[in-house]
Sequence to fold (383 residues):
Amino acid sequence: MSLQDCELAFQKNNFQLLAAQYNINMADADIIQAKIWELPQVEGYVNAINPQDKRVFDVGRAKGMEITQLIYLGGKKKNEIQFAKSNKELSQLQFNQLLVDLRSQLRETYYNLIYEQKKQISIDAQLKYMNELLAAYKVQTDKGNISLKDFVRLQSIVIQLNNDKIEINNNILGFQQTMKVLTGTSEKTIANLSKPEENEILVSQPFGDLEILQEKALQNNADYLYQLKLIDNSKLYAQWQKSLNTPDLNLGAEYDQASGTFNNEVNLKIGIPIPLWKVNKGNVEKAKYAIQQNEKNSEYQKLNLQTQVESAYQTWKNQYDQYFELKQTDLENLETVYNGILKNFRNGNISLIEFTDFMESYRQTVLQIYEMKKQIMISAEKL
Fold:
């Protein structure tokens, strides 16, 4: 399964992404809700007891009705709508960051899986040869032709290779489980990366020097952009809370059949609270502190992001320089010497001690080379 196939499955099936999209839908619903006004209120009355004529429910001679509507003043609705729209932008930034984080996790897991598989192939090949050799030594040891210490020396290498195999298999199992969760599929991921693709990724370098990378991070990092937007969001919230101190107007009309000054009179009704104090003063103060808090958080996020980019860049550079100190001929020579050692040992041209020392060194070197390649890709991905 190629990396592109995994990314397509991730975009279509990842449950975290699918769930996070509903946050944007809910933010849209909040905007709709913010635009809704209070419903008009209708009240009416009819006569229940007419003591003068000794009648009950004298509806024909005494009834009335009124209708009122709450009118928002001070720009409350406008501010509430703007705040709801700002919340939607925050939801979109959160979604974008989640997408970046999960996609980065997918690619890192894929690269881990590739090189664990490569390690597995190498260890299996070494183990196959060493198991055959150990079986042959066992026969000769039982016959007394070879000393027990030589057999034990070989056996220790086999034990170490088996330990490596178990560890690698466990790592592969863990990475495959992670890939299943990220791609939303039950299929086992077998990572596939051709040699040209591998070389292209290894030699590719981040665009620009450290300062340029830091500047790009400040322009594109969703977490940092979220913190900046949160300042604007808190300012809109403060503006909304401040507008809530303005009293609202109750405007209405009333019809009265007989109890007013005139028969069948229609009256205009106006009601407004008396602003003797600010009813939302505490929330306004709280909103001001939220602005200051978010400004400090954004400064921290900026510094933290620049530090992370610097650390990631230095990590990548160290891994890159370390690996490319090795020439391609050095890697080819390693395999050539390995095959030569196997052949010479079969022919009896080298001693067992020389053979086992080289095999231990070769095992460690191969694992280290694969680890270096993996770390170059992962550190570049973090940038």
Observations:
- The chain has two domains: 3-37+73-245+280-382, 41-71+247-279.
- The first strand starts at residue 41 and ends at 46.
- The mean pLDDT is 89.
- The chain has ten helices and six strands.
